[in-house]
Amino acid sequence: MSNRYAKYETFIVDYPEPRILRLTFNKPERLNALDRVGHRELTYIWRDVDDDPDIDCVILTGKGRAFSAGGDFDMIQQIVSEENVRHAIWKEARDLVYNLINCGKPIVSAINGPAVGAGLVAALLADISIVGRSVSITDGHTRLGVAAGDHAVIIWPLLCGMAKAKYYLLTCDRLSGEEAERIGLVSLCVEDADLQERALSVARALANGAPNAIRWTKYALNNWLRMAGPSFDASTALEMLGFASSEAVEGLAALQAKRPPSFPKGSPV
Question: If pLDDT is split at 50, 70 and 90, which confidence band does 165 have?
Fold first, then answer.
């Protein structure tokens, strides 16, 4: 097998069966939160996956009780306070979404616990998303004080419809795994104990299928997402604009203090 993944620190890399690559977020003591290195690796590993001739399918999951808690507080603080970091993360946020969309290999996400930020991006942009029954899903951007960027605008309305997308993205309300499946936000909801085996079973079927037919079907279907590219690009720009605002300062402080935010009122926008 290729050693192209040896440079990645963020994942446990293994091959549960021939031609199936499994990437497991590997910071369970931090709920698999991503620092700057982790965010960059999650963004660009899909280019290596796309170029890897030894695999036909990928499983993405998390070690321990979380899938991935997204960016850690240190990285979020840097985005809020440092303009150059904000610009770099803006580029990575765009590249992450487009790299997932353009990766030719089918991706299966086994969502075993909390999935936030970039973790939720990868979980929901996977071609087949499978969630454990006990898992709840939320997009917390507006609670943090920034626009729902990174992936929500490009795919939530397509998966679950505009009415549900607006409700969950504006309110940051939580969805159970069962509700996420019911509204179409994820592909499947299964018992927690069955999650990894079901993900492997789906990956096995994909790996044993006609590779070009599967990849070309994925490519064609993802043109729906490519058509939403301008809306997505606007959302990421507005998200980063929000990180430079007083709302993000208060949102981050509230999260760190584990209290409700008190956002400033009277915006002219």
Answer: very high
pLDDT at 41: 97
State the pLDDT confidence band at 71, using cuts at 50, 70 and 90: confident
Region of 190 (left: φ > 0; alpha: ψ -120 to 50; beta: rest) is beta
Secondary structure (H, E, C), the chain:
CCCCCCCCCCEEEEEEECCEEEEEECCHHHCCCECHHHHHHHHHHHHHHHHCCCCCEEEEEECCCCCECCECHHHHHHHHHCHHHHHHHHHHHHHHHHHHHHCCCCEEEEECCCECCHHHHHHHHCCEEEEECCCEECCCHHHHCCCCCCCHHHHHHHHHCHHHHHHHHHHCCCEEHHHHHHCCCCCEEECHHHHHHHHHHHHHHHHCCCHHHHHHHHHHHCHHHHHCHHHHHHHHHHHHHHHCCHHHHHHHHHHHHCCCCCCCCCCCC
**pTM for the full predicted model:** 0.95
pLDDT confidence of residue 265: 84
Tokens of 40: 């960059």
**Distance between CA 104 and CA 264 in Å, rounded?**
45
Which pLDDT score, from 0 to 100, does residue 87 have? Answer: 95
What's the CA gap between 226 and 111, in Å, rounded? 24
Task: Judge residue 88's burial from the number of C-beta atoms within 10 Å of its C-beta, 0-12 exposed, 13-18 middle, 19 or more buried.
Answer: middle
Residues of the chain with pLDDT > 70: what percent? 98
Looking at domain 11-257, does it have CATH number 3.90.226.10? Answer: yes
Residue spans of the domains in the chain: they are 11-257
